[in-house]
Design a protein that fits this description.
two-stranded antiparallel sheet, 4 strands, 9 helices, about 45% helix, about 200 residues
Length: about 200
């Protein structure tokens, strides 16, 4: 997924950019969703849990279905490939201070030392956390990352990259909860990139 190319019968073919892989699972009422093997799931930048719509949003969804008078929804293009690549490239202009890089490494390192975690996040987890925090900053119209950006994205960036100890499955402890608790225990840097601005 991250190589940007496929190989078959000894021939390597580059994939057109942007190349994105999305995967979904649906929870069944009788059993848990089928999991992607860990070595595959860590190739994904993040894992989101969407849950159910709020009541007003669900009512609005039904109203939109009635208003369009057809089963099939008409999709329209929002951006083209060049615009999407430009948005992705704009992340490179978002500053990340040295103390925030230390913070990211401390969080990822804590996943490797936590007693409830059997296998912690790899360095790829830190790379994902930095890029996603840059995206959070950009969405908040900033060109620098603050600790809240890292905290906001840590669970989606790291929970699918760890393996909990087997006994936690029986107690229904989730990786999301473990990462959230771990995040609360890692000291947050006190420096503020805004303070350095003239």
């Amino acid at each position: 997924m991250g190589e940007g190319q496929v190989s078959m019968d000894g021939v390597t073919r580059p994939l057109p950019q942007p190349f994105v892989v999305l995967a979904t699972t649906t929870r069944s009422s009788t059993r848990a969703p089928t999991s992607c093997p860990r070595h595959n799931s860590t190739g994904f930048l993040m894992r989101l849990r969407l849950g159910y719509l709020s009541r007003p949003d669900e009512v609005a969804m039904l109203a939109r279905r009635l208003a369009r008078k057809t089963e099939r929804a008409e999709l329209r293009q929002v951006v083209d490939a060049a615009e999407l690549i430009a948005m992705r490239d704009s992340l490179e202009q978002v500053e990340v201070s040295a103390d925030l890089l230390d913070y990211v490494v401390a969080i990822v390192g804590a996943t490797r030392e936590h007693p409830q975690i059997q296998v912690g996040a790899s360095p790829r987890g830190g790379l994902a956390l930095v890029q996603l925090a840059r995206g959070q900053a950009l969405l908040r119209q900033r060109d620098y990352v603050i600790p809240d950006d890292v905290k906001a994205i840590a669970v989606p960036a790291l929970a699918h990259r760890i393996t909990l100890r087997p006994e936690l499955w029986v107690r229904q402890v989730s990786a999301d909860d473990v990462v959230a608790r771990l995040l609360a225990a890692v000291p947050v840097p006190r420096t503020d990139p805004r303070a350095a601005a003239p």
